[in-house]
Amino acid sequence: MPVIKSAQKQMRQTITRTERNRVIKDTYKAKIKEVKKGIGTLDAKKLQEKLSESYKLIDKAAKRNVIHKNNAARKKSQIAKLVKEGKAVKVEKKATKKKTTAKAKKK
């Protein structure tokens, strides 16, 4: 924990900003997953709507400097390519890593 008042305030600000950025990131990532899941199942019109919504969220994240503008362009390009090809993509959940302690490693 920081001792200096300005460092304490900076820590509070960092926590607030991190939470705000996390919400923005989670929303556009969820929308991208919807697009990927919908490639094989949704009709073209609904898929195009979801694609444009995901573009909007990605652009908003880039505008707010949550992600870099080139990163945003790359993400938009990748999902557009997937939609154009029409290939269904298997969306997997991330495997959570188990934290191992030093004691557990020694055994």
Structure report:
The protein is mainly alpha-helical and 107 residues long. The chain is built from 4 helices and no strands. It has helices at residues 5-38, 44-63, 69-85, 102-106. Helix 1 (5-38) runs antiparallel to helix 2 and helix 2 (44-63) packs antiparallel against helix 3. The chain is elongated. The relative contact order is 0.11.
The major β-sheet equals: none
Would you state the CATH class? Mainly Alpha
% residues in beta strands: under 5%
The helix count comes to: 4
The general outline is: elongated
Runs with pLDDT <50, length 5+? none
List keywords for this structure.
single chain, 107 residues, Methane Monooxygenase Hydroxylase, Chain G, domain 1, 71% helix
Q: Helices, strands, pairings?
A:
Blueprint: H1 5-38, H2 44-63, H3 69-85, H4 102-106
Helix pairs in contact: 1-2, 2-3
Structure summary:
Helix content is 71%, strand content 0%. It is mostly helical and 107 residues long. The longest helix is centred in the first third of the chain and has 34 residues.
